[in-house]
Amino acid sequence: MFKIKDDILVSYYGDEKEVIVPFGIREIREYSFLDCNQIEEINLPDSVEIVEPRAFYGCKNLKTVDVQRSVLPLGFDDKWLEGTNAAFTLIEQAIGDSDIPDGLEIENDSVVGYKGEDSELIIPDGVGSIGDKAFYDCKTLRKVVICDGVTSIGKKAFAHCNGLETVIMPDSVKKIDDGAFEECRNLKNVELSKGLKKIGKNAFLYCVSLDKIVIPEKVTSIGVSAFGGCNVKRITIPASVTEIGESAFWNCPLNIRKVEGNNFYFQGGALYDKNGKIIWKK
After folding, report:
1. What CATH fold (topology level) applies to the domain 96-282?
2. Is the pLDDT of residue 282 over 80?
3. What is the mean pLDDT of residues 159-165?
4. Topology of domain 1-92, per CATH?
5. Would you say 199 and 219 are in contact if contact means Cβ atoms under 8 Å apart?
6. How many helices (H) and strands (E) does the chain have?
7. Dihedral sign from CA coordinates of 88, 13, 110, 224
8. From the CA atom positions of the chain, what is the Rg in Å?
9. What is the mean pLDDT of the chain?
10. Host H or E run for residue 129
11. Which of 102, 154, 103, 99 is nearest to 128 (CA)?
12. Neighbouring-strand partners of residue 198
């Protein structure tokens, strides 16, 4: 989806209406998003310091660019939005030291690690993302409450947290990345964000205690093996979903099934896409 060299975003080749630029990107080059007419909203993390002129040129449907800053950095060229009709919004929530739980490591607005021993943890206000492997293989966590304002949960962020049972997720989360909760074998209580757009591959792979899940109505993509090996018994595929990866529901005992819209259908104990390709079979 992104072509990145070092910490520079060179080009974008995805098809999402709402794009979240990954945390860690420092610079966005000229014409990086050239003629990406499907994009309506872009979210820039506070790691971005430089945006060259005409970075979003030709994005005819782009309405807003959310910048996770209190002021626009000097490295944003005066013509960075040239070729669009978009406006930008500055967004920043300060995190006080007294708000940060012991052992929680935060850089800029992203959780990057955890060395605490709490069984219940509240991610504080002001955090914008949970980074890759931030809680990987944490043995103590049983419950996590994610604050409103977090927009993405990174790759393998909570993978192999075998004691984790409950995740409370705000509606601000728009992306759950690959393997985010992979092999959380005791995870059984999770309500997905109503604002969620993308569920990455292996996102809940082998969450064997997870027996119910509601796919929110804004989700467009469910990745390969996203719920593989779970114990999900009932599922509704909303009309917004246009892509379901291979084995997304592998080994799930789906007894009650419902599909909205025309992109997928159930027939004869199997889930098919509109072209007749089998997505899941009992």
Report:
1. 3.80.10
2. no
3. 96
4. 3.80.10
5. yes
6. 0, 26
7. positive
8. 19
9. 91
10. strand 129-130
11. 154
12. 175, 221
Q: What percent of the chain has pLDDT over 70?
A: 97
Q: What are the tokens at 120? A: 């219940």
pTM: 0.71
Q: In whole angstroms, how far apart are CA 248 and each of 40, 69, 238?
A: 28, 37, 15
Backbone angles phi, psi at 236, to 5 degrees: -120, 125
Inter-residue contact 21 to 28 (CB < 8 Å): yes
Residues 6-19 have pLDDT tens digits of 889 999 998 899 99
Nearest alpha-carbon partner for 160 in 111, 223, 207: 207
Amino acid residing at 60:
K
- Decide if 273 contacts 264 (C-beta within 8 A): yes
58 alpha carbon, distance to own chain's centre: 26
The full set of domain ranges for the chain reads 1-92, 96-282
Q: Strands 243-244 and 234-237, how do they pair? A: unpaired
Q: How many CB atoms lie within 10 A of CB 49?
A: 15
User: What mean pLDDT is predicted for residues 209-224?
Assistant: 94
Length of the chain: 282
pLDDT in tens, 112-141: 999 999 999 989 888 889 999 999 999 999
With b for 16 or more beta-carbon neighbours within 10 A and e for fewer, the 174-213 pattern comes to bbbbbbbbbbbbebbebebbebbbbbbbbbbbbbbebeeb
DSSP 8-36: EEEEE----SEEEPPTT--EE-TTTTTT-
Report pLDDT digits (tens) over 217-257.
Answer: 999 999 999 999 999 998 899 999 999 998 999 999 988 78
